[in-house]
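Entry 14: structure prediction run for RING-type E3 ubiquitin transferase. Input pasted below.
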Amino acid sequence: MGNVTGGNRRDHPSPSYPNPNPPLHAPPSQYQGYYPPLPSPYHRQGPWVPNRATPSPFSPDVEQQKTVTIRNHINLKNNTLRFVPDEDNPGKFLLSFTFDATVSGSITVMFFAREGQECNLNATKEDLFPTSTVSFPRGVGQKFKQACGTGIDFSALSEAELVEANETGVYHVAVKAEASEDDPEFITPNRQLTHAVLEKDKGEEYKARVVKQILWVNGNKYVLQEIYGIGNTVEVNGEDENETGKECVICLTEPRDTTVFPCRHMCMCNGCAKLLRFQTNLCPICRQPVDRLLEITVNASGTNQ
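Run finished. Output tokens:
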């Protein structure tokens, strides 16, 4: 066999590559761009349960508050607000709704109104849409409907007029419900304002949509907000004893008494709500960020504490 000839043989060192699996606690300068995974605030198995052992340092401070009971004599049920045809005046529509009142009082309906001082209403188109006021007795589940001839003619409205009203802080429809009986508990008259805007539905008919409800009690103004899920927490004469859905969505044992803001889901008990602050800033129901927790206790009669 012949000899293989050629130049002198030299061994070249192989190129150096970093370890593809660096240790978790390697110095950051050695493995640029690699970071160990952050600990999860949730247990990976079973239902959503707060990790009670180690608070998460990444959670923001969530404020927790308790409710203060305010006695409201009159309440307009905003989901009942609608327009019905005026049978005596074709083309006009009358505002109707259902309300509860523990005292007698008066209801004022005003179109194109601006909110004034001490929760009063100021009409901006009194010449076109006169204000109407009627009295009512005490009673629960009362039906209100404007008197014939005092309603609104939608054909007299233009889209530009409605838009201009919104931009200038004028509500298309406003209802003021005010208690008339003297009560030593109240320094000023107890009143509730309901503001609504006019919108067209798919059939091109105008509908009223409530955008704000305000309560004026003893010189203080309160903006009312609906709490989602509070209805399931009330028991009436034990009829709902076996109804499901009252338990905290986290521990599934304690009754719900805490509402998450700003989404307003009443879904947790007080204990789990306190732990939530150290675990996450997301609502357990809708996953929206949480900035405030409100504790609400509802007794058997349905009164908030």
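Notes: Residues 1-17, 22-60, 233-243, 300-305 have pLDDT under 50 and may be disordered. Will compare against the previous run tomorrow.
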